[in-house]
Every structure is written in structure tokens, then in C-alpha cells.
Amino acid sequence: MADDGYESIVLGGGCFWCTEAFFSTVAGVVTVTPGYAGGFVSNPTYREVCDGATGHAEVVEVEFDPRKISLEKILEVFFASHDPTSLNRQGADVGTQYRSIILYADERQKERVETFISRIAGEYDQPIVTEVKRLDRFYPAEEYHHRYFERNPEQPYCRLVIAPKLAKLRRNAG
Questions:
Q1: pLDDT digit string, tens, across residues 9-68
Q2: Rounded Cα distance, 147 and 162, in Å
């Protein structure tokens, strides 16, 4: 936990434009930064990650205020925003860079994540394939990926993929 009392966790659930858009609307989330993590190449670029040879996933670093939102609520949003039973794909986005992954900061977070997944596993018809591992290094994405949906709402991927998923997530959140 940082001096300001905030916590962070790194999450990948498909295209980071989608994941960033979802978490940017959640009360208690302070910042959402798209990037790359979970792989073995230092300082990867978007093109390298898309080629699938870096081992990295498209992820977001979610910084949140635990006095306003719990890690478990963050995980609820995460699991509601993608299909955690789909291996290396989310919709039309296919490849290991789109895998479902949680990169935890410390052992306490790991335990909470594992407990959460155990609790919800029975809600799915298929096994949860979300990879859970300790964060080694987070690499922020190139600047043009930051706030992508917010800055490009008329871009076809934003209109046809992100906007409907965001609307569904809002409806389901009640």
C-alpha cells in the first residue's frame, strides 16, 4: 500500500482499451493505466505484444482507494467484464496477449484473489482459466492507448465492441 493509502492490482481481460474503459467508471478507482505485464521481454511495444512473442498480456494497472472500494469489488467488476473461462481469447481478440490474468502485488492480495476465485468458480459452466501470478514488472503502454475509449468514442472498435460491453456492465451493476 502506498503512503496515500491506495492499493493497486494489475488485471488483464482481453483488449486493454475495454478493461480501461470499464474501470475508469468505477467509484473508488483513482487511476487506470493500460500496459503490458506477465511476460519475459523488457520494455515491450504494442506491436511486439500483438505479435505474441513477448509472453505479455494487455493489462491495466488499477489504483484504488480501499476506503471507498474493496479489492473484492474490483474483482467483481473484473470478472463481470470478460469471460474468465475463455483461454487466450475474448470475443474476436485471439492470442495469449488477450488472456485472463491477475497479477497481484503481495501475498495478502494473492490470498484474497484465490479466495474470491474459489467463491465464484461454481457460477460458471466451465473452469475459470484466469492466470494468477505475482507481478514482476508493469510496462505502461504507449501514450496513444491511454484513455482510448474516452478519446475515440466513434472509432469502430469503440462503437461496436467497447460501448455495448460497457452498457451491459452498467446494466448488470444495477
A1: 999 999 999 999 999 999 999 999 999 999 999 999 999 999 999 999 999 999 999 999
A2: 12
Please report whether residue 96 resides in a domain: yes
Give the dihedral sign, CA 89/94/98/99: positive
In a domain, 100, yes or no: yes
Single pTM value for the model: 0.94
Range of 94's domain?
Answer: 7-157
Bridge partner residues of 134 (DSSP): 104
pLDDT in tens, 146-164: 999 999 999 999 999 999 9
Domain count, the chain: 1
Active site residues: 15
What cell does 155 get? 472509432
Any alpha helices (H) in 26-123, and if so which ranges?
A: 46-51, 71-80, 107-120
CB 141 within 8 A of CB 16: yes
Q: How many CA atoms lie within 13 A of 161 on its CB side?
A: 19
